[in-house]
Write a structure and sequence with these properties.
The complex is a heterodimer of chains A (111) and B (112). Helices cover 0% and strands 52% of the residues of chain A. Chain A is built from no helices and eleven strands. In chain A, a hairpin with a 5-residue loop joins β4 and β5. Chain B is 0% helix and 52% strand. Chain B has no helices and eleven strands. In chain B, strands 2, 4, 5, 6, 9, 10 and 11 form a seven-stranded mixed beta sheet that branches. A four-stranded antiparallel beta sheet of chain B has the order 1-3-8-7, with no helix packed on it. In chain B, β7 and β8 form a beta hairpin. Classes of the chains: A mainly beta (111), B mainly beta (112).
Chain lengths: 111, 112
Amino acid sequence: RKEVEQDPGPFNVPEGATVAFNCTYSNSASQSFFWYRQDCRKEPKLLMSVYSSGNEDGRFTAQLNRASQYISLLIRDSKLSDSATYLCVVENAGNNRKLIWGLGTSLAVNP
Amino acid sequence: DAMVIQNPRYQVTQFGKPVTLSCSQTLNHNVMYWYQQKSSQAPKLLFHYYDKDFNNEADTPDNFQSRRPNTSFCFLDIRSPGLGDAAMYLCATSTGTGYRQFFGPGTRLTVL
């Protein structure tokens, strides 16, 4: 099992749609989880940290399921500007606490 | 604004010609990282510094070296670039390992 696994997509959705991404991780001792957004040929930027209780920031909601070892990202009312790659990032508790990066899920929001 | 700065943004070098990439930060973070990212791949951690302590990833080639002369600056040296080293090189900082990382805009390296 890969340390962090995401469906690469691409997800093609119309404006206004709701879209959800899942990400699974292998290390049950991981403590920190993040979603980053990366635009083409740009650097990754933090979208959200993911907390145990789940958290919401405007149209974006992140959830953590420790029992099944996955995190999710829900985007409501998709905008054209949401088109990007969404990277799931998990702290590897057993190895200097470095961050393990997923390959990313590509989202294209169409007019 | 506090930030992570990388220079140059674009670097072209010849096969085998040494190159140095620069990163500076005004965040006063303890940890600085260098990542390599190729198209459609996840960022790959090359090494990181926790303060002055250097941590090399096991699979980072010897061709890649790094220096951190002070808290604010970190350099990536590629001693003999090969065609396979063409990539985006990302510098990031954090307050500690396992915490959110702040990225610079990256340096896109082309090897001719």
